[in-house]
Structure formats: C-alpha cells, structure tokens
Description:
Layout: H1 2-95, H2 109-115, E1 116-120, E2 155-160, E3 171-176, E4 183-187
Antiparallel strand pairs: 1-2, 2-3, 3-4
Amino acid sequence: MISENRDILVERLEHKLVAKEREINELRDSIKESIVEELREGMKEDLDFDKRILVLENKLRDISLSYDGVMKELLDQKTIIQDMKNKYLKDDKVDQAPSTTRSKNPGTLTDWHDNVQVHREEPPTKEEKVEPSSRFIIAESDEDRVPLSKKDEKDIIIAKNPDPGSTRKGEVVVEAREDEDVVIEYKK
C-alpha cells in the first residue's frame, strides 16, 4: 500500500511538473512574442525617426545650397554695383572740374539773380511750328536753348547751377513755366 501511495503521489507530482513546464514554455513564448513586438514597434519608431531625420537633413542641405547660391548672387550684385559706382563716380570726378571761386555767401539774392537767365520767347517761325514729340524739349547742351513755343506762354526761366562740383549727379538744369510743373534735368 505504501508503494501504491507513493506511485500515486509520484504520478500526481509528475502531472503537476508537466503542467508547470507547459506554463513555463507558454510564458517563455508569450514573453518572446511581446519582446519581439516591442522591438518591432521600437524599430518602426526608430525607422520613422530616421526617415524624419533624413528628410530634415535633405531639407537642410537644400536650404544650405540655396543660401550659398543667394550669397554668391548677392556678392556678384555687390561687385557689379561697386564697379558701376566706381565707374560713375570716377566719370563724375573727371567731368567736374574743381571750383576755385566761391562766393562767401552763395545763398544771397544777388547771387541768384546773377545766375538766372531770363529768355523772352519770340514768335515762332514756320519751321518751328512743327509739332514736337513731347510738350517741351529740355536743354541738353551747354548752350542756352529754349523749348519749342506754346500758344500762351510768357517767360521761361532757365537756372543753371554755377558750381557743378556741389552736386553728385552733375550739372543741374531747371526749367519752370508759370502754368506748368518744374522740370529738373541732371546732366553728366
């Protein structure tokens, strides 16, 4: 009897042991699956993160290339502007003779009156009656030319700056009529 009881006990214990081994194997499998799933999700997140980083790196590279291109273009434009500035400033300096005579008070009324020339228009001849392409012609040379006449015009005042060195753009010619706007021309 004792040996039969032992055999029954051993069988029960063996059954329990087999059941526990199955549970352990199931737990191992489920743990492996959950670990693999977590790793997959982590890898997917890492891949997504890596893809986002790659996209950002590409955008940064494109922006950097665009920035370099813009900077090179700006440098080219700056060089062109400096060349033009040097050329025109040099031309202005060559064209403008330095003034040695200057009045002590250039803003007086007598100085202005001396520098302003008043022209009276004469009746137009048949040759001058040809319609001009614009309303008036601005004097383009050192000679004192008067615009083509209009019907009811009276006096035309042409003022010239006596000291061309005082302006950067060159000699200034100003024309004014009583009934129209003032026309200013810079000559080089």
